[in-house]
Amino acid sequence: MRTCWCALLVSSVLIALFYSQMSGARLASTALRIVYVTVPNHDVGLSIARSVVENKLAACVNIVPGIKSVYIWEGKVNEDSEELLIMKTNEKQLEPLRKEVVRLHPYEVPEFVSLPIDHASEPYGQWVLKNSLPDPAEAEENSS
């Protein structure tokens, strides 16, 4: 499993600090989520990012290059260069997002970690919600 717990921890702390320092409003629900996914290279990350944004599974994906992951896999300590995807979505899309990431990801056990966003500016939160849900007409077509 190629995951970077150090990068995940540092990113989590930085994001938590960023959102706690914002003067934004607390959303009525914890509908907004950040999802972390590590990928082996830029091409895989860009492919996953484009797919999840185009399919409105996430409103935005940041691709953070140059992370180093140290992890145990099959009883051995490994080190690999990876990139980190930081996805902004809503809780209703978590399972479809997870399925798409797993479908496109080359790892046997891809990282998929979801954290709630406790605070966000109201315009940004609404933008994430609007852009991470399928259009009602599309959703109706797909359910038929």
Automatic annotation (TrEMBL):
Which Pfam family, an example, fits this chain?
CutA1
Q: Which UniProt keywords are given for this protein, alphabetically ordered?
A: Signal
Q: Is Iron tagged as a keyword? A: no
Q: Which residues form the signal peptide?
A: 1-24
**Gene Ontology process terms (BP):** response to metal ion
Q: Name one GO molecular function term.
A: copper ion binding
Gene3D superfamilies, sorted: 3.30.70.120
Assigned protein family: Belongs to the CutA family.
**Under what name is this protein listed?**
Uncharacterized protein
